[in-house]
Specification:
Blueprint (H helix, E strand, L loop, with lengths): L8 H11 L4 H8 L3 H9 L6 H10 L4 H10 L17 H13 L5 E4 L5 E4 L4 H5 L13 H6 L11 H19 L2 H11 L23 E5 L2 E11 L6 H4 L2 E7 L2 H16 L4
Antiparallel strand pairs: 1-2, 1-5, 3-4, 4-5
Helix pairs in contact: 1-3, 2-3, 9-10
Length: 274
């Protein structure tokens, strides 16, 4: 029975360079080293120092989790910790996440991990969760992409499901291309297997002007919320879990949606909403 050989440091660097669509010359110039030296590292004829491994990984924008793997392949100890998000050492960072989520109310915002599993959410996300028909989708860990596109999730309530599905699948494809995560690849395969809706007619520009981003148009009761979103990440994390945490903040795409969200928020203080 044959065993798969362990990856070499040179092979991993070459793999990430190829993934970033960089030639050896491109990376050598970016890292300010000779192409000959880089060629020797990739072929195994030269063993890079720990600092050189980290330098090349930085130039290639390799995720911290993968940088540890490259360090191990080179014979060095991992350089980045991976703590649980409830670890006291991450207390200040997670308090910042809480502040961002709460500060975004009355508009929805969520924090997700590297596989888009829900970590935290503000109160404005409640109408989204109440619209889910399949209870199993709300059992931890709640995957927000699965929740969006599953037939028992939000999919039946998304008015522009074709456009939103295309947007999420393309986002997931680009993300997996960037980080090379097997879990994301499995998730993408699963989501693409869900029943695809009929193609919609191209959307006409709204009276206020053309669309500037793909909105999420979600039917809540008798209303349709139109939302656009932004993604926020920590700028200089040294912990793997923190580097993989992202906050998605939703904003009303029109004045009517803003009014609906503010009205829903008013129910929190009146005791009519949780």
């Amino acid at each position: 029975m044959s065993t798969k050989p362990s990856p070499t440091v040179g092979g991993l660097i070459r793999e990430w360079r190829t993934r970033r669509r960089m030639s050896q010359l491109d990376l050598a110039l970016e890292a300010e080293i000779s192409q000959r030296h880089l060629s020797f590292v990739e072929s195994g004829r030269a063993t890079p120092s720990r600092d050189m491994v980290l330098h090349l990984a930085e130039r290639l924008e390799v995720p911290l989790r993968a940088r540890n793997r490259i360090l191990l392949a080179a014979g060095y100890a991992p350089g980045f910790t991976e703590r649980r998000l409830d670890d006291p050492a991450l207390g200040q960072a997670m308090a910042a996440v809480e502040q961002v989520l709460k500060g975004h109310e009355p508009f929805p915002a969520i924090a997700v991990d590297r596989h888009w599993n829900l970590v935290k959410a503000n109160r404005a996300i409640a109408p989204f969760l109440q619209a889910v028909a399949e209870p199993a989708l709300l059992e931890p860990p709640v995957n927000v992409l699965r929740l969006s596109l599953h037939p028992g999730g939000l999919a039946p309530r998304i008015v522009n499901l074709v456009a939103w599905r295309d947007h999420l699948l393309e986002r997931l494809r680009r993300l997996n291309e960037t980080v090379a995560d097997a879990g994301l690849a499995t998730l993408e395969h699963e989501l693409r297997g869900y029943p695809a809706p009929a193609r919609e007619r191209p959307e006409r520009p709204q009276p206020d002007g053309p669309l500037v981003a793909v909105p999420l148009k979600l039917k809540i009761g008798e209303n349709v919320l139109s939302l656009i979103s932004t993604i926020t990440v920590f700028g200089t994390p040294l912990d793997i879990s923190l580097s993989e945490l992202a906050i998605e903040s939703f904003f009303p795409a029109d004045a009517c949606s803003g009014e609906i969200l503010r009205a829903l928020a008013a129910g929190w203080t009146n005791g009519t909403a949780s």
